[in-house]
Amino acid sequence: MKILIESNYEEMSETVARIILAEMLHDHRVNIDLTDGSTPKAAYQIVADIISKNPDKYENVHYYNHDEMEGEEQLVSTLLKQQVHIPFKVKESNIHRMDFNHPYQQVLDIENSGGLDLVVTGLGADGHFLANFPEATRFDEKVYVYDPKEYSWHDAYCKNLGLTQMSKLATFGYKMLANAKRVVVIASGKGKAQAVKDILTKEISPAIPGTILRCHPNLILILDEEAASLLSEEDIKRVTK
């Protein structure tokens, strides 16, 4: 594991953008899986600005999504379209959406296309990554489906998002990420500091899903100083040696 601590959100975003762009510039097909959300927003804007100068230069990049909610609106795919696909000027042929009704097809498509070169995911304040939420997460699956309403965190999470309730979710489990060539986890702000501390120091457990990420052979954790504020030098040495 490599831990990069930047002074602030802006510098963190620049680092994330450089990593994404470096992966895109390979001269072969590149398969990437980017998260939606507020944390990567500035990084994506940096990437979009550079791509806009020469979109044809990045036609080798294919985009996959790692989760989807039940429903015809395809919420996750819609968010990625707004945050990534349109700004990055991605051709429709290079977009590979997860079908909630057939989520394992996404796994097969990725495996038949050379695997994932890069996954970028955020970290929730509860330690979740992708849609691997506390207690619901399955470390032993490549992809799985579950109903968030069955878990104690559902109501509070919906309140924070302004939702009445969450639909069923299909998501990649850790076993899928374990096969990715590189995984980048990003976290910003004091609200993520305890989660960062927990995933690096607590016992690996579905109660704190992000703890399993320590097992990935090529993981980069990118933080701003606020998100890293609870980490001691000993915490960092323990996971990076």
What features would you describe in this structure?
By secondary structure, this protein is of the alpha/beta class. It has one domain (2-240): Rossmann fold (3-Layer(aba) Sandwich). Helix content is 32%, strand content 18%. The chain is built from eight helices and ten strands. The chain has helices spanning 9-24, 41-51, 75-85, 104-111, 154-161, 174-178, 193-201, 233-240, and strands at 2-6, 30-34, 61-64, 67-69, 95-96, 118-122, 143-146, 169-172, 183-187, 219-224. Strands 1-10-9-6-2-3-5 form a seven-stranded parallel β-sheet, with helices on both faces. Strands 4-8-7 form a three-stranded antiparallel β-sheet. α1 (9-24) crosses α2. The radius of gyration is 17 Å and the shape is globular.
Order of helices and strands: EHEHEEHEHEEHEHEHEH
The number of distinct β-strands equals: 10
Beta-strand residue percentage: 15-25%
State the distance separating the first and last CA atoms: 8 Å
Total number of domains? 1
CATH class group: Alpha Beta
Question: What's the rounded overall pLDDT mean?
Answer: 95
Low-confidence stretches: none
